Amino acid sequence: MLFISANSLLQEGQYEYKYIVDGEWIYNKNESVTKANKDGHINNYVQVFSKELGSYSQELREQLARDGDLTNEERLKIRQFLEAYSNKE
């Protein structure tokens, strides 16, 4: 997954994009990619998280970053849930 830290106007969520190279729309296989949609298109994406105090994603990040609170198995289950949830939006 691509992680970028920047102050921006983007709201929390998942944003899809592609590149235009020599007039062709392509995605980068070395970056996060979506599953093929109903038309067979695959895009790159970036997940934007809020850093605002009290936001859901900020609380989740803090909880996942704490040492000793969660086992590796619990972290994996949470990650799988979040990845599945973000693909439904």
From TrEMBL:
Boundaries of every AMP-activated protein kinase glycogen-binding domain copy: 9-51
Top-level taxon of origin: Eukaryota
Segments passing through the bilayer: none
MF terms in GO: carbohydrate phosphatase activity; phosphoprotein phosphatase activity; starch binding
CDD domains reported for this sequence: E_set_AMPKbeta_like_N
Keyword terms, alphabetized: Hydrolase, Protein phosphatase
Gene Ontology biological process terms, A to Z: starch catabolic process
GO annotations of cellular component type: chloroplast
Keyword match Cell membrane: no
PANTHER family from the UniProt entry: DUAL SPECIFICITY PHOSPHATASE, SUBGROUP, CATALYTIC DOMAIN, PHOSPHOGLUCAN PHOSPHATASE DSP4, CHLOROPLASTIC
Record protein name field: Phosphoglucan phosphatase DSP4, amyloplastic
Lineage summary: Eukaryota, Viridiplantae, Streptophyta, Embryophyta, Tracheophyta
